[in-house]
């Protein structure tokens, strides 16, 4: 079993862990929900049997196992020393969304035995913070429906089973819409000259040639790109060597429509040209125009 990718799916109750596990199962993984972390070494020591028929092992873990947050590091680090490969996926949602979901399903939160739902959600968030900080991938499901979450998870399953290399995403965004929660590295490019203030360019976005030329044909932009790409060329191999499974590089401008889109594409092109796999996404490109 040591060569089979092992994924731990955890996060806040109500954030979509069951949906994620179902999507992993649909992708050919063997899934076990509510696995006590203390039993994981024993499970992985069992005879492999027909394990080769599965593309990965996925375990759902949460605070229903009271020892999970406390014992996770000890158990997983010991297994890693024995050449097991782990990825930790953390699902979360904002409090209002979790409250609405519990109201709709009429289920009880696992920590709400002696407290109200709001307090249970907040206590769980505190308990899981150390695990969230260690996660290879954080998925905020607040605005996702079931089908969108399954699509994300199926793609993750494909990436994990086809290629064990680090998955890198370059993401443009607008600060006015908030920081992307999944970002590992965030670069603010609001210091660059803004095409918003050119009336004829304002309606266009960073995927058009006119905006690209405006942003890139500038000495300040060229200097920044050289220095920042040099930094990424140092950092990315270090993250790979450390065993990180996912890396999200977020590039932000005010509205996420012009400057960040152009810069994100330049960084994406450089990473792909270096022979690494990368994905490019523009979170806010279609939102309202703003400076």
UniProtKB/TrEMBL annotation:
SUPFAM superfamilies: P-loop containing nucleoside triphosphate hydrolases (SSF52540). Residues 167-286 form the RapZ C-terminal domain. InterPro entries: P-loop_NTPase (IPR027417), RapZ-like (IPR005337), RapZ-like_N (IPR053930), RapZ_C (IPR053931). Keywords: ATP-binding, GTP-binding, Nucleotide-binding. GTP binds at residues 62-65. Transmembrane segments: none annotated. Residues 5-156 form the RapZ-like N-terminal domain. GO terms for molecular function: ATP binding; GTP binding. ATP binds at residues 11-18. NCBIfam families: PRK05416.1. PANTHER family: RNASE ADAPTER PROTEIN RAPZ (PTHR30448). This is Nucleotide-binding protein.
């Amino acid at each position: 079993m040591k060569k089979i990718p092992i994924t731990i799916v955890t996060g806040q109750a109500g954030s979509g862990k069951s949906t994620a596990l179902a999507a992993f199962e649909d992708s050919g993984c063997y899934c076990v929900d509510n696995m006590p972390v203390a039993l994981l070494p024993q499970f992985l020591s069992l005879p492999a049997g027909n394990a080769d028929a599965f593309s990965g092992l996925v375990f759902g873990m949460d605070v229903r196992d009271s020892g999970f947050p406390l014992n996770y590091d000890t158990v997983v680090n010991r297994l890693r020393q024995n050449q097991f490969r782990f990825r930790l996926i953390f699902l979360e949602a904002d409090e209002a969304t979790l409250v609405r979901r519990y109201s709709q399903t009429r289920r009880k939160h696992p920590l709400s035995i002696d407290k109200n739902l709001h307090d249970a959600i907040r206590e769980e968030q505190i308990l899981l913070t150390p695990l969230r900080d260690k996660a290879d991938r954080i998925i905020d499901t607040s605005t996702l429906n079931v089908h969108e979450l399954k699509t994300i998870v199926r793609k993750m399953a494909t990436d994990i089973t086809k290629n064990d290399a680090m998955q890198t995403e370059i993401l443009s965004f607008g600060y006015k819409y908030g920081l992307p929660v999944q970002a590992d590295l965030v670069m603010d490019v609001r210091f660059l000259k803004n095409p918003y203030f050119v009336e004829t360019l304002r309606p266009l976005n960073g995927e058009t040639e006119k905006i690209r030329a405006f942003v890139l044909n500038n000495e300040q932009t060229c200097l920044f790109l050289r220095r920042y790409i040099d930094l990424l060329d140092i950092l990315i191999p270090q993250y790979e060597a450390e065993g990180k499974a996912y890396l999200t590089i977020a590039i932000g401008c005010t509205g996420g429509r012009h400057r960040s889109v152009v810069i994100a594409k330049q960084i994406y092109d450089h990473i792909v040209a270096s022979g690494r796999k990368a994905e490019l996404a523009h979170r806010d490109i279609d939102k309202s125009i703003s400076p």
